[in-house]
Design a protein that fits this description.
Number of domains: 1
Shape: globular
Number of strands: 5
Mean pLDDT: 95
Low-confidence stretches: none
Distance between the termini: 22 Å
Strand order of the largest sheet: 1-2-3-4-5
Strand content: 25-35%
Helix content: 25-40%
């Protein structure tokens, strides 16, 4: 992993960088979403409401280079919630430098800190 790599929660001031990364993610899957979906999705990621997606950003030297979206939900196998890592993306120019691994580990750590023992 690169020493100048940090993972942190998504914040309101990340809107334009999140949109850039999310658009690149959608482009990879050869799809797009409406402006309403962009706005609604970003607001949901920041809401902190139970049952809504959450987001993490990976930064290298202060530049956002990756994102992860995850969701806590009920499970029929445990009393505790479980964590679903929905989306994972990093810029092409930083692939192979530990960004995706750091985001995955960040989601696991965040879930455990929130009392959610399982992530898939």
């Amino acid at each position: 992993m690169t020493h100048d790599l940090t993972v942190r929660p998504l914040k309101e001031t990340d809107a334009s960088d999140w949109r850039r990364l999310w658009t690149a993610y959608l482009d990879f899957y050869e799809t797009s979403v409406s402006e309403e979906v962009y706005a609604t999705s970003f607001a949901r990621l920041l809401s902190g409401n139970t049952g809504e997606y959450r987001g993490l950003f990976a930064e290298m030297s202060g530049r956002p280079v990756g994102l992860a979206h995850f969701l806590y939900h009920r499970s029929m196998w445990t009393v505790e919630d479980t964590c679903y890592l929905m989306d994972l993306f990093c810029d092409e120019d930083v692939r192979g430098r530990g960004v995706a691994r750091a985001l995955i580990e960040g989601v696991h750590a965040r879930a455990k800190a929130d009392g959610v023992p399982t992530t898939y």
